[in-house]
Amino acid sequence: MNSFKIAIINFKRNIRTYGLYLAAMIFSVATYYNFVSMRYNPQFLEAKEVSAYIESSSMAASMLMIIFLIFFIVYSSNFFLNQRKREIGVYAFMGIDNYKIAFIFASEGLLLGIMSVIFGLGAGILFSKLFMMMLAKVALLKVALLNIRINFFISKKAIIETIILYSIILGVTFLKRYLDIIKTNLIDLMNSLKKEEECPKINYFKGIVSIVIIGVAYYIAINYEKFGFGTALMVTVLLIIWGTYWLFGSFFSMVIRYYINKKGFLYKGTNIISISNIGFRIKNNYRTLAAVAVLITTCITSFGTVSSLKYYVDENHRIEVPYTVTYISSNEEEIKKVDKVIENSSHNVELKNNANFLYVPDSEVVVVNLSTFKDILKDLKIENREKVISKFKLSKNEAGYIERPGVMMSILEKNDIHIGNQKYNIRVNTKVPIFGKGVPFPCIVVKDDEYEVLKSHFSEKQFNGIILDKPEDTKDLTFELAEVLPAESGLYTYFIAGARFYDFTGIVYFLGAFLFLVFVFATGSIIYFKTLSQSFEDKGKYGILKKLGTTDLEIYQSLSKQIGIFFILPLIVGIIHSMVAILVLSDIMKCSLNKPTIISIGTFVLIYGIFYVFTRRKFIDTVGVA
Predict the structure, then answer these.
(1) Domain segments of the chain: what residues?
(2) What is the pLDDT of residue 143?
(3) In 3D, which of 327, 274, 257, 282 has the Cα closest to residue 480?
(4) How many CB atoms are closer than 10 A to CB 416?
(5) For residues 517 and 68, what is the distance between their CA atoms, to the nearest angstrom?
(6) pTM here?
(7) DSSP secondary-structure letter at 149?
(8) CB-based contact 418:445 (threshold 8 Å)
(9) Closest by alpha carbon to 408, among 208, 191, 586?
(10) Helix (H/G/I), strand (E/B), else coil: 518
């Protein structure tokens, strides 16, 4: 029997063990194909308004997925190699050449990859129309795709690109696995499962300092304005990784040792089995647990970020487009023409407003007085306007800073601003509707008397804002108004906002959601593989416990606790890390992100819980509990 036939037999025999890995790989191939296929879909290419967004988003998502897949495939390959070390050692002990053994096991991994690509491409092509329809629906491509029917499309270029990419990754993985087996010592292979387990030595210094490090990281993240956003981000990430590594390596060892020494707890039920086993195993697993916690943080934070973009679009549209029609003009004739066009339209006027402001070209800001600012908030009926207004108790040479409309994230690096020869200290920085994107500049609010002084140095302009019923039906009205207003009036309508805005954020949200699913699948698979590898080592131990009189129910309860703790610990740490990250994001975006945060965490916990159920069932089946 040649080496390749042996590899095929081994592959068939272990197909159930590879089940979750195959599912994750098939899903990743299908997703990657559809990401690439977006760039070549003729229907999206015809929609010029969004084709550039789709291409750039698809490229970015594909690159992120490639990086993550390389990590996942390499990690999985190492897991399968470690799991089969004793089997490899038996082959070597029987006199089979090391090069043949290496070829057998490396080919087994290659067969897994080939099957993943074949089934993944099939699934990707089969569901490609559904994928594109979901993109058109979720990504808010209303203007570009309103009259376009999504047809079934198979992209030959996407198929070739997917095959080439995965061939390179699988080829490199095959070579790495082949070389790893050749270089492995026979004695190490035979003794790989005979190493004595020992309870980890407690390092109280690292355990306590890990909490301090994480606390410092949180402080720097929350106070990013003091340290500068770039510096705060880099330092926070490094401290979180460092602190999490020590947290699992030392702090949780301290906690477990505490419960082991607490006899009343230890001898209650099956705790003596589960807690003691965790105490012995944490020494070998803390690196994986720390890595999983960081991955969970990345998954939840990333999905929370893209969800916040969608949430921002849905919930904060009024900040960007508070009026149905806006233009800048103090010419009475132009204003009358606009009123006449609106009067002859099918729309009813719900609010008509005008306000004066100063444009400061050097600083690229507009200035309004405090009275005008208060009147606008009241006319627009802004929620919590009294609370917002209460923050604007301005003294001499103090000003309020209103974020530029259209900016989702803004970090104000300075606490003062120069307007002409006058320096103003920024007392409050907020984001509320004023002029919308019709005046695409930050707005500075100053006291009325100081506004009068500044008026002598800068030209005053008049903003006109109108709210109409049926704002979504303003396409024809927009073209009619464009004929009566000069270009310098800066006409901006609800229709223009819909045509230019939100498509990109919708695409990012959609692709980010799919990436999130792939990452969750990979993260769950990593802890699944690591936990499952212990089941082979524990099979004999639980057999002895059964002979000593331990019932299947007690073993089942013990295993549920043991596996549950290994799943829950990184989950809790990852959720706490991600909540702090999203809290900072919320502050930067100047809006509450409670809803997307809850959705992100809830989605992750649900999928992660499914992995726990599968892992527990597989573990129990392996150790032979009925």
Answers:
(1) 1-195, 319-500
(2) 42
(3) 327
(4) 11
(5) 12
(6) 0.66
(7) P
(8) no
(9) 586
(10) helix
